[in-house]
Amino acid sequence: MQTDTSSAFPGYDAVALLSGGLDSILAVKLIQEQGLRVKCLHFVTPFFGKPHKRRHWEGLYGIDIESVDISADFVRMLVERPVYGFGKVLNPCVDCKILMMGKAREMMERYGARFIISGEVLGQRPMSQRQDTLNVIRRDADVRDLLLRPLCAKHLEPTRMELEGLVDRERLLDIRGRGRSEQLELARRYGFAEIPTPGGGCKLAEKENASRYWQVLMHSPQPCAREFKLSNIGRQFWSGGRWMAVGRNRMDNTGLLKVCGDDDLVFRVRTFPGPVAVGRQFSGSPWDEVTMADAAAFAASFSPKAVRSGSPVDVRVCRAGDLRLLAEGDEHAPVPGEAVVSVMPARTTGAGWAEPLWVEAREEIRAEARDKRG
Ligand code: SF4
User: Fold this and answer.
1) CA distance 145 to 108
2) Rounded Cα gap, residues 19 and 202, in angstroms
3) Ligand 1 contact via 17 beta carbon (within 6 Å)
4) Which of 112, 151, 241, 281 has the fewest CB atoms found within 10 Å of its own CB?
C-alpha cells in the first residue's frame, strides 16, 4: 500500500467521519475488513461530540480515533446562517455535513489518506440523506472523487476508489431507508458488546436546547463557542438581552464557573446554601445596579432556605475573573471588588426573567427564513 511519507501520521488509507453512532462505526468496520487502515475523526462542538468516549470506543470497536474541535467554524456557520437552512429544529444538517467533510478533506494529507468514508444511508434522514442532498454535500465539500459511503455504496455511482480497485465494491452494502435491522444484524456479526444508538446525539435537534441556542444567536453581539457551552448548563433565563444561568446541582455550579467569561457576574447567597448563578455581561453592555439587585433577588429565590427565612438575604456579586484569582478551596473567602446586596428572594421580579420557549424560537426562525426568501 502506498503512503505519503510527508504526512504527519502516514500509513492510513482513509479518514472517516465518526459521530459515535452505529452507522458511522459500521462504515469504518466495512472498510477495515478490506484490509485498509482508517483514522476516525470525531468532530466536537458545544452541540455534539463525546471526546471523553474516545478511548472507550477505540477499545470496544477496535478503531482508531482523533477528536477534532470544529467549534469556531461551526459557530461561524450558525451566526452567518446555514446556506441550506435548518431542519425540523435548529439542526443545519446539510451545512454541518459539508463543514465536516471539508475538514476531513483538509486532514487527509496529514494521515496519508486517499479517501474519506462516512456512514450515511440513502433515504434515512429527511434532510441530509436524500439522493440530491448527498450529491450537494459531495459537491460543496469538494469531495466528489474522495468520498465513499460504504453502507449504501451499491445504490450510488461507483466511486474512484472502487473503479481503481482500492476498495472492493462487491463487499460494500446496499442499505437504504430508515429501518435498522440490517445495521443491527451487522453489529451482531461484528460481535459488538455495546450497540450504540443510531445517531451521535445532537443537541441542535432537541427543542429545549435549540431554544437556548436561539437566544444566544439573537442577543449576543458576537456568539462564540463559550456562550453555547454556557447555555448548555443549568437553568437558563432571559430578560430582553440580559442572560442568567442558574446551576441545578454541584456539577452545574462547577461547570458554570468554568465556562463563564471573566467579565460575567457570579451571584452566590451568603448565609444560606444555594446555587451559583451567572449573569452574562456582553461586551459593551455592563449591568447597572438595578439589574444586578434584581438578578440577586432572582438568584436567591433558588435557595429554599433563603426563601423560607422570610427576610432579606445577602447575595455576593463579583466578576468571575476576580473569583478565579482565589486559591482552589478558598471560594468562600472575600473576593476583591465583590459587592454584597441585601435582597428579598423573588422568583418574579421587575426584569421578568423567563426560560426560553421553543414555540417562540420556532416562530422567529420561521419569520427569519421567510424574510430571507423575500
Ligand atoms: S444532527 Fe447535528 S451533528 Fe448530525 S448532521 Fe445534523 S447538525 Fe450535524
Assistant:
1) 13
2) 10
3) no
4) 241
Write the pLDDT tens digit of every residue in 16-39: 999 999 999 999 999 999 999 999
- Residues 75-92: tens digit of each pLDDT: 999 999 999 999 999 999
Domains and CATH numbers, the chain: 14-202 (3.40.50.620), 206-343 (no CATH)
Q: From the alpha carbon of 199, which atom of ligand 1 is closest?
A: 4
At position 313, the amino acid (one-letter code) is: V
Q: Whose CA is nearest to atom 6 of ligand 1?
A: 93
Q: What is the pLDDT of residues 117-133, one digit of tens each?
A: 999 998 887 666 778 88
Q: Rounded CA gap, 224 and 221, in Å?
A: 10
The dihedral sign for the CA sequence 8, 9, 12, 18: negative
Q: How many CB atoms lie within 10 A of CB 369?
A: 12
* CA contacts within 13 A on the Cβ side of 344: 6
Confirm if 218 and 364 have CB atoms less than 8 A apart: yes
Please name the residues in contact with 329: beta carbons below 8 A apart, sequence gap of 6 or more. Answer: none
- For residue 43, the ligand 1 atom closest to its alpha carbon is 3
Q: How far is Cα 254 from Cα 327, in angstroms, rounded to an integer?
A: 15
d(CA 332, CA 321): 15
Ligand 1 nearest atom to the CA of residue 87, by list position: 6
Task: Quote the cell numbers at residue 263.
Answer: 467579565
pLDDT value at residue 374:
79
φ, ψ of residue 176 in degrees (nearest 5): -150, 145
| Residue carrying the nine cell digits 436546547 | 209
**pLDDT tens digits, residue range 277-299?**
999 999 888 999 999 999 999 99
Quote the cell numbers at residue 98: 459539508
Provide CB contacts within 8 A for 372, sequence distance 6+. Answer: 81
Cite the beta strand spans of the chain per DSSP E: 14-17, 38-44, 65-69, 115-117, 147-148, 235-239, 242-246, 265-269, 277-280, 313-319, 339-343
100 ligand 1 Cβ < 6 A: no
**Pick the residue with more confidence: 98 or 3?**
98
Cα–Cα distance, 369 to 352 (Å, whole number): 28
Region 247-254 average pLDDT: 97
pLDDT value at position 3? 39
